[in-house]
Design goal:
Elements (H helix, E strand, L loop, with lengths): L14 E6 L3 H12 L4 E7 L2 H10 L4 E4 L8 H12 L3 E6 L7 H9 L3 E4 L9 H14 L3 H4 L18 E6 L3 H10 L9 E5 L6 H12 L3 E3 L11 E3 L5 E7 L2 E7 L11 H12 L3 E5 L8 H9 L3 E5 L9 H7 L5 E3 L1 H12 L3
Parallel strand pairs: 1-2, 1-3, 3-4, 4-5, 6-7, 6-12, 7-9, 8-9, 12-13, 13-14
Antiparallel strand pairs: 10-11
Length: 354
């Protein structure tokens, strides 16, 4: 197949898009929607992973729209190679198999896709789908204000020693599933401190998300229920319909679910989890903030820091969106700024045997 020459991008603010879909009708429909915007332009449209890789050898793009049902090499199989060839391009999966709660959705996010969108039938591309596509593109194509400012402490190693900790509380959003995977793989089975996670996802995703994390981390993972005990060697994740908070018990601590409105507007939100961890565990908590849009976690991080706890954030270079970690880094309050695998190694070094 011949590779189409890229169309010129008129101005620096316009984001370039490569469409990878085996349906010529879908490629045309997606192309019309994207070119109708004033912020995005289609520079290439190909039918599969191989031609997409050939295109990316010659051209740089900002965003790749990827279908998962492709001939020869399916989208999930080709995703890691596309990310490598894209040299920083963000992959938005647009596929009929990427619906809410679908296994393929979590798999794509764990492999490094920045976001997903369920593709409708050919006759339903107009209207609501067009709005959703623009929304997803804006989410990936925009840069949070906190990410544009240079951090006051642009370090790649700990600025100070990590305080001893009894639990690890992790917050993440867009791009966070891939970052979580890298971080958890770097933590060995000997690590016994509980890992508590708030990831922005709908409730329908949570059972499969928990199963995926258990497989990746090599340790049990529970979707939090009210009064569930926090136990060593396990992961607990916030359900999609409530914040994960904590309460002291006679023999440790337990989950307490809350639906109180959070400043960020997120449900679940990282801020209530961090604030509750600060109250219950004090300086013996460790906060981690991974890739995500917005500022969720920055208020709760201040609560943790105020108790003498440490807060580690993901570095900008490895983040899909450096909003949440960037808000803390730019405030100059991050204990360390590291890529996810290095965060995992640091947690393991500080936590094993303590």
């Amino acid at each position: 197949m011949s590779i189409p020459s890229p169309r010129p991008v008129a101005e620096a603010a316009v984001r370039s898009v490569l469409i990878v879909d085996d349906s010529i009708v879908a490629r045309a429909a997606l192309g019309r929607m994207i070119d109708a915007t004033d912020r995005y332009v289609v520079v290439g449209a190909v039918s599969g992973v191989r031609p997409a890789l050939e295109f990316l050898k010659r051209h740089r793009v900002d965003i790749v729209l990827l279908d998962l049902q492709l001939p020869e090499i399916d989208g999930l199989t080709g995703l890691p190679d596309l990310l490598a060839a894209g040299q920083g391009a963000k992959v938005l999966v647009v596929s009929a198999t990427a619906g809410e709660g679908a296994i393929a959705t979590i798999q794509a996010l764990a492999l490094g896709a920045a976001d997903t969108l369920a593709k409708p039938g050919i006759g339903d591309f107009a209207g609501r789908f067009s709005d959703l596509l623009r929304e997803r593109l804006d989410r990936l194509g925009s840069v949070d204000e906190v990410a544009t400012a240079a951090p006051r402490a642009p370090v790649s190693a700990p600025q100070q020693s990590i305080s001893p900790f009894d639990i690890v509380a992790v917050g993440a959003s867009t791009g966070g599933i891939h970052a979580l995977s890298a971080m958890l793989r770097a933590i060995p089975p000997a690590f016994r401190q509980p890992i508590l996670i708030t990831q922005h996802l709908p409730a329908s995703f949570m059972p499969y998300f928990a199963a995926q994390l258990a497989l990746i981390a090599g340790r049990p993972c529970d979707v939090a229920e009210d009064h569930m005990r926090i136990r060593p060697g396990r992961i607990m994740i916030a359900p999609g319909h409530a914040h994960l908070c904590f309460a002291r018990t006679s023999d440790g601590a337990a989950a307490r679910l809350s639906r109180e409105p959070a400043v960020s507007g997120c449900l679940p939100s990282v801020d209530p989890m961090f604030a509750s961890a600060a109250q219950v565990f004090g300086k013996r908590a460790l906060g981690v903030v991974l890739s995500g849009m917005g500022r969720d976690g920055s208020i709760g991080a201040r609560d943790l820091l105020g108790e003498g706890a440490s807060v580690i954030v993901q570095d900008r270079g490895s983040s899909v969106v450096w909003g949440m970690p960037g808000a803390i880094a730019n405030a100059g309050t991050a204990t360390a700024i590291l890529p996810p695998d290095a965060i995992g190694r640091l947690i393991a070094e500080q936590g094993v045997g303590k």
